[in-house]
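Notebook entry, structure prediction.
Reason for the run: the old model in the group folder had no record of what sequence produced it. Starting over properly, with the input documented here first.
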Amino acid sequence: MTVKADRTYTISQLAREFEVTPRALRFYEDKGLLMPRREGMNRVYSHRDRGKLQLILRGKRVGLSLIEIKEILDLYSIDQRAQAQTALKRYKARVVALEAQREDVEAAIEMLHGYIGQLEGFLAKPAAPNAMANARAFEQEAKKRLEDAH
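New structure, fully documented this time:
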């Protein structure tokens, strides 16, 4: 019976399992994040490589840079506690940044709702008799300027 830690994976198997392209796996290898062993021309990924890929994708998903992810991965072989502390620090920093972004997004949405309400209120009022003629004339002039520019 094969021990799970001894299990190996091909590039296609990992790509399929994690829904990434083989090119993405090669990119992570080029960046020093994954280091599969070679059997001839084939890459052979270990169970540990699979775990690293999980961490890479989790880090990317929450917005960590590849440099930050590499720092966390590199600490594993030195000191797992230091790795966990570094990951915790990075994750907490991302939470702060994402919460600030959420506040900005919520404020922008609220502003947009206000603008939408103002515009809908304006458009709900009857148009001045010559408003449509003015709008058509403006559109024709804009179209003519665009044609002249080409």
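Summary: The first strand starts at residue 8 and ends at 9.
The old model has been moved to the deprecated folder.
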